[in-house]
């Protein structure tokens, strides 16, 4: 089984299906009301790059990044189907996103994740991201933490 990463349009059906699964997860995990409060951070039209991971031609994961400001990109919409976790797909998604950022001249990246998402936090730390004070709209948000990788 080989995992392939493809750069896709933000309107690609496989990406949209994975994003719908991710949104369902957030709705179940935190309630629809809380999840709705974060929707403005996830607008696919704002994404500079989107990728989908395929295993045997089946879409199993995705990730995107957007420009947080002119200086730094922000990782968004990272997701791997539960049945495919632990197979290396998330690392390959992250590598593809970081490679795209580097090609566009960026040297560092940030992200935000749920404070209780221990598995996600551990994964991001394994990829070189470190917890930082919450930035932007996440300042004072007790449900999330922010992370940064200084050198891609």
Structure description:
The protein has a seven-stranded mixed beta sheet, sandwiched between helices. A hairpin with a 2-residue loop joins strand 2 (47-55) and strand 3. It is built from four helices and seven strands, in the order βααβββαβαββ. The protein is globular, with a radius of gyration of 14 Å. The protein is 31% helix and 31% strand. The mean pLDDT is 91. It has helices at residues 13-30, 32-36, 89-103, 118-126; strands spanning 3-7, 47-55, 58-67, 73-80, 109-114, 130-132, 144-149. The chain is α+β, with helices and mostly antiparallel strands.
Please tag this protein with its features:
4 helices, 7-stranded mixed sheet, single chain, 152 residues, 31% strand, alpha+beta, 7 strands
Q: Mind summarizing the main beta sheet? A: 7 strands, mixed
First and last CA, distance: 28 Å
Number of helices: 4
Counting helices, strands and paired strands, the structural category is alpha+beta
- Using DSSP, what is the number of strands? 7
Order of helices and strands: EHHEEEHEHEE
- Report the mean per-residue pLDDT as an integer: 91
Share of helical residues: 25-40%
* CA-based gyration radius: 14 Å
The gross shape turns out to be globular
Strand content: 25-35%
Q: Strands of the biggest beta sheet: in what spatial order?
A: 1-2-3-4-5-7-6
In the predicted model, the low-confidence regions spanning at least 5 consecutive residues are none
